[in-house]
Amino acid sequence: MKVLLVDDDPVFLELSKTFLEVFHDINSDTVESAGKALEKLDERSYDVVVSDYDMPCVDGISFLKIIRDKNPNFPSRSVRSLITGPMLRL
Questions:
Q1: Is residue 88 part of a domain?
Q2: Beta strand spans in the chain (E)
Q3: Is 34 within 8 Å of 64 (Cβ atoms)?
Q4: CA–CA distance from 11 to each of 25, 33, 41, 65, 90 (Å)?
Q5: Where in this chain does the record put each Response regulatory domain (predicted)?
Q6: CATH of the domain at 26
Q7: According to the model, what pLDDT value does residue 19 have?
Q8: Into how many domains does the chain fold?
Q9: In what order do the strands lie in the sheet with 27-31?
Q10: Which pLDDT band, with edges at 50, 70 and 90, does 75 fall under?
């Protein structure tokens, strides 16, 4: 399975990528913006796209709409939006 992780938080991206690889043996690519994600989607296909909701420039919902507009045959069940918030600071 090939997963694309999209989030403007590089720490969250690295943690998510490591978790998927170590615990589930799932390969993933990471990008820090919706624009870079669209470039990746033009280059290769993914089984699942996991996107942050709150990103600068394009939020997760708008990003999902852009993907569906550009790729009408892209399976809706393989695109997921993940809502993340600020990390807890102690």
A1: no
A2: 2-6, 27-31, 48-52, 79-82
A3: no
A4: 20, 14, 22, 26, 17
A5: 2-90
A6: 3.40.50.2300
A7: 94
A8: 1
A9: 27-31, 2-6, 48-52, 79-82
A10: low
